[in-house]
Amino acid sequence: MATRHIVDTVEKKAAADEERSDAAVALKVNHVNRHQGTERGKTARRAVPRSSHAIWVAPPDRKSPVAILAEQATTREPDLVPIRHGRMLVSPFTFYRGAAAIIAADLAGTPTTGLRVQLCGDAHLLNFGGYASPERDLVFDVNDFDETLPGPWEWDIKRLAASIDVAARGRDFTEVQTRQAVEATVRQYREAMRHFAELTELEVWYAHLNEALFLERFHAELGTKKAPNLERTLEKARTKDSMKAFSKLTAVVDGQPRIVADPPLIVPIRDLVDAAARPDFEAEIKTIFRQYRRTLQGDRRHLLEQYELVDAARKVVGVGSVGTRCWVVLLMGRDDSDPLFLQMKEAQDSVLAPYAGKSRFSNQGQRVVEGQRFMQASSDIFLGWIRMTGLDGNQRDFYVRQLWDWKLGVDPSNLTPGNLSVYGRACAWTLARAHARSGDRIAIASYLGNSSVFDQAVTDFAAAYADQNERDYEEFAQAVKDGVLPAETGL
What we know:
Shape: globular
Distance between the termini: 41 Å
Number of domains: 2
Structural class: alpha+beta
Strand order of the largest sheet: 8-9-10-11-13-12
Largest sheet: 6 strands, antiparallel
Radius of gyration: 23 Å
């Protein structure tokens, strides 16, 4: 009864917050015509010259990256924090992946035009990739939204550009090759934004990059030898689904499918909660799960109701996310050939919030979901959010999605200079499309202009910030060596 009361209270509060937020947005609608958008961009260019984006100099009062990571650790599972640090310790690039809070603080002091969009908030090159659309088409898009929040569009493109530079250095590319890859990425963002500025609202909303369009756009640059390898990679991505997860992550126990323990990376509920408390905790998860269903569209709620929840486990994911609470939930349909794996991932305050402003959503899971729906051309049909009480008795927000629904990523260690340039351009096109959906694309395009001034400026910034990242990595590695930060490698 107490759990049901908590759920009802949370649902009513969430509904009220959403109504207030929608009402506030409705009051703020301001229609800007093409001429006004163009003039807005030109005014921004006069106030913030495009060349000013080249500058990165660490301020004297810059907060230590070690201190920022130590602060983040206080909100995470203590036993998983060493794994996070161990994964960041692998290379300057893996450190960069986990350093969203560090660069967020740094970007807050860089020039911005005042033109805001829905940001990814962590737009490094590995947070783009392929997945299945509801129409069962392989699409390429932004695929990580833990830090999403409205803010200055420049922050995302600078985060992406610097990630290209850091990745190129990890592959020992020459300075010329590195600069070419970064500049091609930024140029693609500028050209794509100018293209989207010429389209109608609906054309922008429907724009997407699926498998056919990806191959058409980049086939010539990949060449006849590399294109077949890409096609094989795309085909392999289609096999990474709930059935694949079922075969990899489960075994039959007492005649029932159960998630297999692989501590500390995967720990089933049965190993986290003592036998006496387990029935109550499992009952609470099922109750909270019913709450999550109510955040879905009616038809998708009906689909989910055909599945029965049979097991759950804590799972370590990613690099930057390690230590936040993440659960995988196994559901079964009519028989053992019909599994569904969902991921329930904790959503904390965005690392951008201290600089871009707090989210209008009180539930951070809803913040992630709404941002994802805003930026993606096509989103997971099971995307939703919940608030639940953890094993420690504290309430936390989560968003829910399928664990695997096809999955295509890139391995930076295998990239050639040409591949990196092509991949960076695909990310930049996608990012521009996402920003064009939520911001004043005409003003941003007007600001960017036809010349390469902005491209070169952000390329200079990326090189300077990659230098900063190396210094931060060295400071971080020394802190681990000195025992200031705990780290466990190899996991």
